[in-house]
Amino acid sequence: MSIQIQNVSKTFGSFQAIKPLDLTINEGEMVGLLGPSGSGKTTLLRIIAGLETTDSGKILFSDKDVTRLHVRDRKVGFVFQHYALFRHMTVAENIAFGLDVLPRDERPSKAEIKQRVAELLEKVQLGHLAGRYPGQLSGGQKQRVALARALAMQPRVLLLDEPFGALDAKVRKELRRWLRNLHDDLGFTSVFVTHDQEEALEVSDRVVVMSQGQIEQQATPQDLYHQPASRFVYDFLGQVNVFQGEAKGQRLQQGKAWVAFPVGQAAEAGQLYLRSHELTLQELPSDQANLPLVVKAINLIGAEVRLELEADGWQSDEPWEVAISHTQYNAWQPQRGDQCYAVPLAAQLFVAGQDQQPRPLRWLPTGQRQPTSEPLKLAANCH
C-alpha cells in the first residue's frame, strides 16, 4: 500500500513541529526518516499512524483519504523503541494480544490465532521461546516479539519509531539486517524513524532527511551520500573534513595552507568538504595541495585504522579524520605527533555565502592519468 502525505503541517502551541510538506511512499518501499532530535520525524510518523492529528493537509493510503480515520481503523502496525510488552504475558500471549481483543465479529478463531502466532514466531526465529516471559528475554529478542505483535494484525503499513535505539551496536546491526530481510520476504510498506545515519543508509530503499520540521532531501542511500543537496545534509551524514579558504589564483588558500583547483575549474572562495576516504596522506606536500596535519590520536576500529589529525599552521574548527587499512598502518606505524600532508582526491565545495547545491570537485591522483584503486598507498611514507 502506498502512502501520500499532502501539504501536512502540525503545531504544538507556538512550536511548529511540521511545516507544510509533501511526501510519497511507494507500495512495498522501506523509507527511513532521518534527522536530529526535534526535526519532526517522529511527529510525522505518528501522523501517518493516526496517533497525532494534522493542522492541515491530507494523508492518503492507496488514494483513500485516512486523515480523519481513527488509528484502529488504519490497519497500521506500530513498533515503539522500548518494546511496550506485557510483562505478565508469555511471548506467544504478547503476540496474540491484538488479535484477542478485537471485536467478536472481527476476531479470528482461537485456532487461527494460534496458527498465526506460531507462523510469526518462526518468522522472527523465536519459536523455542513461545512460553517465556519478557523478563527472560534479551533486548534483541524483546524487539523481535514487538515486531511480531505488530505483524500479527496483518497491517498494510509497518511504522517503527527508533526500533533499535535501546540496543547495543552489535545487536542493532544484526536486527536491522534481519528486519530488511523480513521486509523483503513479506513485502509490506514500512517507514522507520532513526537518528543513526549508518542505520538509515544500510536499511532504507530511500532516506528522507528532515530538519526543523521540513524535508531537506530525499534520495536513495547512494545518491544521498554522494550527492548531498545542502550543507546540512553533508554535515549530518557522518564525519567530514573541512578546509576553508579564499580564492587566490587557481588555489583555495588559508595562510600557508592551500588546495589547487582541478585543471579547468574556476577557483572560488568557500569551504571544501572532504570525507575520510576522499583524500590520501603522504610525506611531503604535492603540486596539488599543501595541507600539513599532525597525528593526534590513533583508533583501531574493525577493518580500518582511523587517524585523528590536527591542522598544523592553519585553522580548522574540528579535527580531521582519515581512515587507512591495517596493512598501511603496519607499514607506516604512525605515532602521535607525526606530521603528514593531506592530498584530496574528491570533494564538495560550498561557495561562500551559499548553503545549497555544493560544487563537486575531483582530482587525478598525483602522477596518475586515471584514479588509482589504492588511494592511500602513499600513507606508508609518512613519518
Q: How would you describe this structure to a colleague?
A:
By secondary structure, the protein is of the alpha+beta class. 24% of the residues lie in helices and 34% in strands. It has nine helices and 21 strands. It has helices spanning 41-49, 91-100, 110-123, 139-152, 169-186, 197-203, 221-226, 231-236, 326-332; strands at residues 3-12, 15-25, 30-34, 56-61, 64-65, 76-79, 157-161, 189-194, 206-211, 214-219, 241-248, 251-254, 257-260, 270-274, 279-282, 289-301, 304-311, 320-325, 339-344, 346-351, 359-362. Strands 11, 12, 13, 14, 15, 16, 17, 18, 19, 20 and 21 form an eleven-stranded antiparallel beta sheet that branches. Strands 6-7-8-3-9-10 form a six-stranded mixed beta sheet, with helices on both faces. Strands 2-1-4-5 form a four-stranded antiparallel beta sheet, with helices on one face. Strand 1 (3-12) and strand 2 (15-25) form a beta hairpin. Helix 2 packs across helix 3, helix 2 packs parallel to helix 4 and helix 3 crosses helix 4. The longest helix has 18 residues, at 169-186. The chain is elongated and about 80 Å long. The model is unreliable at 367-381 (pLDDT under 50).
Question: Summed up, what is this model?
Answer:
It is built from 9 helices and 21 strands. It has 383 residues and is of the alpha+beta class. Strand 11 and strand 12 form a beta hairpin.
Order of helices and strands: EEEHEEEHHHEHEHEEHHEEEEEEEEHEEE
Contiguous helical run count: 9
Beta percentage is 25-35%
Instruction: Please tell me how large the radius of gyration is.
Output: 25 Å
Mean pLDDT: 89
- Tell me, briefly, the overall form: elongated
Class per helix and strand makeup: alpha+beta
> Low-confidence parts lasting 5 or more residues at pLDDT below 50?
367-381
The percent of residues in helical segments reads 10-25%
Alpha carbon gap, first and last residue: 58 Å
In total, how many beta strands? 21
What kind of sheet is the major sheet? 11 strands, antiparallel
